[in-house]
Amino acid sequence: MSLTNETKDIQSKLAEYARTGSKKEIEGARDDRLHHYRRLVYNVVKGVLDQGFPIAKEIMGEERWDDLVFDFFKRHKCQENEVWKMPSELVEFVDKTNYQESIGLPYLPELLLFEWLEIQVHGMQDVALPNTQEFGSDLDEALVLNPYLEIAQFQYPVHLRSASEMEANKGHYYLLIYRELDSHLVKFMNLTGFTAILLDTLGQSPKTLRHALNEMGQSLGMEITHEIEQKAIEFIEKMVEKGVVLGVK
Amino acid sequence: MTNDDDILVGLGFRRSIADETIQMKGSSPNFVEIAPENWMGMGGYWRSKLHEAAERFPITAHGLSLSIGSPDELDFEFVKELKKFLDEFNIDIYSEHLSYSKCDNAHIYDLLPIPFREDAVKHISKRIKTVQDILERPLILENVSYYTPVAAKMREEEFISSIVKESGCNLLLDVNNVYVNAFNHDYNAKDFIKNLPLDQVAYMHMAGHEKVEKDLIIDTHGQPIIDPVYDLFNYTLDLTEPVPVLLERDFNFPEMEELQGEMTNLKKIMNQKWNKAYVVDE
Ligand SMILES: [Fe+2]
Question: Gene3D superfamilies, alphabetically (chain B) (predicted)?
């Protein structure tokens, strides 16, 4: 290692100051200029997070949001090389530290996750899509799902984007967040527990609707009636319309 | 013999002006430059825009996260991903900053100044060779703007020259950064440039900046290029061989015509200084 400990220490001190804002004496540096590094770094981080979490920011208000950003960048060592992925680390940080408890916003982790999932799905890497045919409303056709989607379960209705709605309506929510193939736009949709599991089962590997329903029947210990099959077909037809199911193989 | 093909002016490809750049009419850039980290690992809408840009323009890359001056170990996984990305978009010119942006296992997401010291020269030169080996491309390092020296034991130009000499890397000469640093640290910009290893310059940047205090300029890339920086560019071109020149603009975007005007200004100077076949029609 050619770098001396002395040089290394000096570099660490400058980086730590830029990252945390806690100032230590830095050898051979101009005191009246150092604060620009803290300011510039903080602005970059704040800018990325402001853009990534507009709802959380608005609900928390400027001051509490700023405190969170400050704490996050100080206490969490960011690992993402690509700054557009850095917001996922705020989600992690809040989760790990139970930050929501200290500020009395129990829905915060879920709200942040929801906002991150929008970014994540928007930027999901492109994959080659198989050729598909139109869904014939048949239980025995192998369904192909849009690969750009996430299904998430929440206790708070984060999609309503309102603090009072979230506080008043704790329950079970299943959200589908997906990217339209042609427009590249991210959309979301409410699912029931049943349809969430159905899509999740179908997403694991290409399979027929009958196969997926049987799998669900076994794992949930329920009987798959003709009525359930019909409902499932109707649901898939709707998903085809929305571009969530691309067709059949 | 220098000809028109050697007079290449580029524009930074940024999201806020992506469509305007892709559809630009009239005098348009010869190439566009991207920050690879803003596009790597990303699909969907922005990926499709990048493909559109790549269909129209050759692409150069100017990285953000390599952190060549960091005390931390190189992120080999990242460098390998980067190579894949550069290969995919046929990017030959890859440059980075002579600074560090990661330390003690934490990304800072901005450029910090390295102490100008002999041990840092050795450390960085070794890393440059490793990166070049993995990327199978020359690394082109940029003189960065900085607002305070940090524990310097040599002059900045000596630091840069030593690294270029020891590692064999190329130099991205950012003429605006020289102007900014000369102003902020009170040295002579022309003398500074004269003392650089100019035969290793492979790429140049031109940009605007912002004066925030009476003795401090911040390198914002949010303003038009000012006349003294054009003057310095003129001076530099007398001493250098033709290389691609990029107009850096990162925010506060004006109408496209204004950026086109700046590119035309640059091209005119480059033609006058570098293109022996160029006839001034005035
Ligand atoms: Fe630059």
Answer: Divalent-metal-dependent TIM barrel enzymes
Name the band, by pLDDT with cuts 50, 70 and 90, for residue A1.
low
Write out chain B residues lying below 8 Å of A33, CB-based: 147-148, 184, 216
Model confidence band, residue B1 (pLDDT cutoffs 50, 70, 90): very low
| Answer CATH for B4-273 from 3.30.1330.60, 3.40.309.10, 3.40.50.300, 3.20.20.150 | 3.20.20.150
Of B42, B75, B123, the CB nearest to A3: B123
Q: Model's pTM, two decimal places?
A: 0.94
Instruction: Report domain extents, chain A.
Output: 5-105, 142-248
Alpha carbon of B62 to ligand 1 centroid (Å): 9
Beta strands B216-218; B210-213: pairing state: antiparallel
Q: What residue of A is the nearest CA neighbor of B71?
A: A8
User: Which pLDDT score is estimated for A24?
Assistant: 83
Alpha-carbon distance of B139 to B131, in angstroms, equals 7
* Chain B CB contacts of A123 below 8 Å: 41-44, 46
What's the average model confidence in pLDDT over B6-12? 95
**What is the chain B residue with the closest CA to A184?**
B45
Architecture (CATH level 2) of domain A142-248: Alpha-Beta Complex (3.90)
What does residue A232 show for φ and ψ, rounded to 5 degrees?
A: -65, -40
Q: Are A36 and B218 in contact (CB under 8 A)?
A: yes
Is A152:A120 a contact under the CB 8 Å cutoff? no
* ipTM at complex level: 0.94
Q: Is some CB atom of chain B closer than 8 A to the CB atom of A148?
A: yes
What sign does the dihedral A230-A234-A240-A245 (CA atoms) show? Answer: negative
- Those of residues 160-179 in A touching chain B at CB distance below 8 A are 179
Measure the CA–CA gap between B232 and B49, rounded to whole angstroms.
35
| List of chain B residues whose C-beta atoms are within 8 Å of the C-beta of residue A83 | 37-38, 64, 107, 109
Can you give the residue ranges of every domain in chain B?
4-273
| pLDDT value of position A2 | 86
Nearest chain B Cα distance for residue A104, angstroms = 29
B217 — pLDDT class (breaks 50, 70, 90): very high
Determine contact: A119 vs chain B, CB below 8 A. Answer: no
